[in-house]
Design goal:
Shape: globular
Number of strands: 20
CATH topology of one domain: Rossmann fold
Oligomer: single chain
Largest sheet: 6 strands, mixed
Structural class: alpha/beta
CATH architecture of one domain: 3-Layer(aba) Sandwich
Length: 833
């Protein structure tokens, strides 16, 4: 009936401009209800852009845009929609409450407090109290949060609303370590709720509170009642059931029953992996990020079971490390290319949404899941991309073991525990499939390790002094601390593949003194990369160097096919950073010769066509146009990373994708004309600075190798996804292996390292071996210099020195190794993807 009436309204209204606006608004509502959020936003925007429309129409359009943006994870855009509503005097109480939700999601807790404290309303009072209390708690005002919830007037609230307030008070008490109080609050809340899904969520939190009090048996009884009800009424595929399984594992772990805990964590991991495989293809990139940053710390809690089940831990590490990079593929866009696939895609999404609601009876729910699974098999048969998408997420240690040679080992470094007591361990794998657990060190002991010069490792890593870098990579005791427990794994002439975690992302442990007895040590984003074949470097190479930072060729700017991206200039200007403010980038003389040498080496055959762009032509625009078609990319230029690489992790229950938005906008590469193009007068052109975020939006799937012969390109904040810096942007764009640096390096040494690397690589040496040999070549590079001896040279006349006549000293030729110190070669790391 509604559809029929809507059609009548559309038909009658279309005759007038006003009617067309109404028709567009109704179409936008329909698209939003169908889950077509991107199309709905465009329709709402079309309405909002019209002048002279009634305020109620504009409010509906802006509110609809905000809802769609929130649904797709575009929280900043949703917040801007509400701010626009507010600026037009149209923001009502419900809008303010929605705005407060966004403030909490974005971590803008002070803004949430400012908005909610003066808000006096009976509508949505429970939401106001809960959000205001949450904001207080996040700001460290736990006492204020509890006081607010304990003394708030609850007249007019339903029993369910009162129970929600009490449950939230219990959750905050538990977060503050007040387990006895939390158990009392949560127990009271559970007693106020009718039998249903909400009650058992509270019961699961009550179980954790009881566990915190040391009442393991009572906690297990509570969680088992949750699992029994959820299994019957929601089913084992429902996310709430998986969460309760994890909480049972946590209770067992806290009770010291690691073996039992590992078994329940294994069940939870299987459920979570299945959920991710089912749902990720139907989520936007932002929604995937939000989900995973919230859930990754919970999935990897199982690391604390340590040696109870090492194979489980290895499989978890394979799944969780760099997960978002493995699922960058846009399955929806691929499905839309075929009518049948598109219909199947929408049908599967609809069936699973309905099943996940948990409102249907058990038989109907299971029927919905089963039908969705059947249709998914049909979709995978139609789409190779979707099939590989799922298969890649289900890799196990057994799959990796099959790719290891007899003398090869794979290591997944893992980091686990609370921030104050974080530990590291190594999960080792050989070709037989055997997984070992090797306990290592605490993060504090590693950061505070005293080097031979008296400085801590943490201080030396943050320092820009060459002497500190030399101290790190020549300290045999530090190398022993990191590698000694792993050396027994190696056989003669062996090879180690390792995937770092935590601090090891910023420490080139493969370059440590006597690392693994000189065996080949290869860094990977994740050892799951061993299951993938390397990309072919043959094709087309792009080399850029000798960049002119003061001037650029206008023609290369005019060739741009897209609107200029000037976000870098805006961000650097706001931060008062060069070249927008406080300085400019200087010309690097050695990079021109580096680019010429590499081009001539590549041009000698090898099936690779080389394009070399230098000087004023080496613009950001030229790079964006040329790079997508290349299998090899070499960039010899300035790089920067202004993001804080050592900031604390957010609370486990307050993670989102905004860290990536921030850090990928504070690292980048500098191209021709940047010193000038960042100025507002050149707003019609690219600003000459390519941010990591901009790089992530390019298509670099063909690039088998990207060499960043630039400073600080390996830096960025550490996350479970690796380092969030420029290398992250390239990985998201689809690039293969990446060479990056951890600190500023002498450009002459860099030129020699790079030319030796290409010499070995183009000569047929495997990439990791070519890179290791290039570093050896640089260390052993010989130069003959003339030096004075202590012996007088009386074959020449005397010379005047310091006011006296003296005999000159005899000179001899001496061989030196100018680049033997780690400051010249240890900064560069090869990251295989």
């Amino acid at each position: 009936m509604f559809r029929f009436l809507a059609l009548l309204i559309l038909s009658a209204a279309a005759a007038t401009a006003e009617g067309q606006t109404v028709a567009t608004l109704l179409r936008a509502d329909s698209l939003r209800n169908a889950g077509s959020y991107a199309e709905a936003i465009e329709a709402y925007r079309e309405v909002n852009d019209k002048k002279g429309i009634p305020g109620s129409w504009r409010l509906r359009a802006l509110t609809g845009m905000a809802t769609c943006n929130r649904q797709t994870g575009n929280y900043r855009e949703a917040l801007e929609n509400y701010r626009t509503i507010d600026s037009k005097g149209l923001l009502d109480v419900r809008g303010k409450l929605n705005m407060s939700n966004l403030y909490l999601t974005l971590g803008l807790y002070a803004d949430a407090v400012d908005l909610l404290e003066p808000l006096n309303t009976t509508i949505g009072q429970d939401t106001r109290l809960i959000n205001l209390a949450s904001a207080y708690a996040y700001l460290g005002r736990g006492g204020d949060a509890l006081q607010l919830l304990a003394t708030a007037p609850t007249d007019g609230m339903s029993a369910e609303q009162k129970a929600t307030l009490t449950a939230n008070r219990g959750f905050i008490e538990m977060s503050l370590g007040q387990h006895e109080a939390a158990a009392a609050s949560l127990g009271k809340a559970a007693g106020m709720l009718a039998d249903g899904a909400g009650r058992y969520i509270v019961m699961a939190n009550l179980a954790l509170a009881e566990s915190g009090c040391g009442h393991a048996d009572k906690a297990l009884a509570h969680i088992d009642s949750c699992l029994t009800w959820q299994k019957i009424n929601l089913g084992e595929k429902h996310p709430d059931y998986a969460i309760s399984v994890r909480k049972r594992a946590e209770i067992l772990l806290k009770a010291g029953r690691k073996t039992e805990a590992a078994a329940w964590f294994k069940t939870y991991f299987g459920l979570m992996r299945n959920y991710v495989c089912r749902s990720f293809a139907f989520l936007t990139d932002k929604q995937r990020q939000d989900f995973w940053f919230s859930n990754e710390p919970l999935v990897t809690e199982c690391y604390a079971t340590e040696a109870a089940d090492p194979q489980l831990l290895y499989d978890v590490a394979l799944f969780s490390k760099c997960l978002l990079l493995q699922v960058e593929r846009n399955i929806e866009a691929e499905a839309r290319r075929d009518t049948s696939a598109s219909r199947l895609y929408d049908s599967i999404a609809s069936l699973r949404r309905e099943a996940d609601k948990g409102s249907s009876d058990a038989r109907q729910r299971d029927s919905l899941y089963a039908e969705a699974d059947r249709q998914e098999q049909r979709l995978m048969a139609m789409m190779d991309g979707y099939r590989s998408f799922n298969a890649n997420m289900r890799l196990t240690s057994a799959d990796i073991a099959r790719r290891l040679g007899r003398n090869e080992r794979a290591i997944e470094f893992i980091r686990y525990g609370s921030t104050s007591a974080r530990r590291y361990a190594a999960l080792t794998l050989d070709g037989t499939g055997k997984v070992g657990f090797v306990p290592l060190w605490t993060e504090d002991s590693l950061r505070n390790f005293r080097l031979t010069d008296g400085r801590t490792l943490n201080e030396a890593m943050k320092s820009m002094r060459a002497a500190d870098k030399n101290a790190i990579y020549t300290d045999t005791k530090l190398s022993s601390m990191i590698w000694s427990k792993l050396k027994p794994l190696l056989t003669k002439r062996g090879r180690i593949y390792f995937a770092p975690d935590g601090l090891l992302h910023l420490l080139a442990i493969e370059n440590m003194a006597d690392a693994m007895n000189g065996s080949d040590v290869c860094r990977l984003s994740s050892t799951r990369e061993l299951a993938n074949d390397d990309k072919d470097i043959r094709g087309k190479a792009l080399i850029m160097g000798g960049v002119s930072y003061d001037e650029c060729d206008a023609k290369t700017q005019d060739d741009a096919t897209a609107a200029p991206d000037r976000s870098a200039s805006s961000i650097l200007s706001a931060l008062h950073l060069p070249p927008a403010a406080n300085g400019a980038y200087a010309y690097l003389p050695a990079t021109a010769a580096e680019a010429d040498t590499i081009r001539s080496m590549i041009a000698k055959g090898n099936g690779i066509k080389a394009e070399c762009i230098k000087g004023t032509q080496a613009t950001e625009t030229a790079f964006k146009l040329a790079a997508p078609s290349c299998s090899m990319i070499h960039l010899a230029t300035h790089g920067f990373c202004f993001a804080d690489t050592d900031r604390p992790e957010p609370l486990a229950f307050c993670r989102d994708s905004l860290r990536e938005d921030d850090t990928m906008s504070r690292s980048g590469l500098v191209f021709a004309g940047a010193n000038r193009m960042v100025q507002p007068a050149y707003s019609a052109y690219d600003d000459g600075i390519l941010l990591a975020r901009e790089a992530s939006e390019m298509r670099l799937d063909r690039a088998a190798l990207v060499v960043l012969s630039a400073c600080q390109t390996g830096l960025g904040p550490i996350t479970s996804e690796g380092v969030f810096g420029f290398q992250r942007g390239l990985k998201k764009a689809g690039a293969g292996a990446i060479v990056a640096s951890l600190w500023n390096v002498d450009d002459k040494a860099t030129k020699l390292l790079m030319t030796r690397f290409y010499h070995h690589l183009l000569g047929g040496m495997p990439m990791s071996e070519a890179f290791a040999q290039a570093k050896t070549d640089l260390r052993c590079h010989e130069v003959k210099i003339e030096v004075e001896t202590d012996e007088d040279d009386k074959s020449h006349g005397q010379i005047r020195r310091l006011g006296r006549w003296v005999w000159p000293k005899k000179k001899v030729m001496k061989t030196v190794h100018p680049y033997s110190k780690p400051q010249y070669w240890a900064a560069f790391i090869l990251i295989k993807k």
